[in-house]
Amino acid sequence: NVGCLKDWIGRFEQWMRDEQTRGNITESDRLEILELNRRWQANRDPINNGSVKRELTERLRRIVAD
Length: 66
Hints:
By secondary structure, the protein is mostly helical.
């Protein structure tokens, strides 16, 4: 029960929307996760942007673990 509902491989945005549809995250959660992902994609430096990476990773772990 993880991943996109319709596509075997989907975009990150679709995955987050599907997690919201499943009731695993709220709309607010989805928007926050998308913003974290946007910030991480813009700067993938784990030293200078490590806090964003850690927060994004933790939020995704909670989705998968639940």
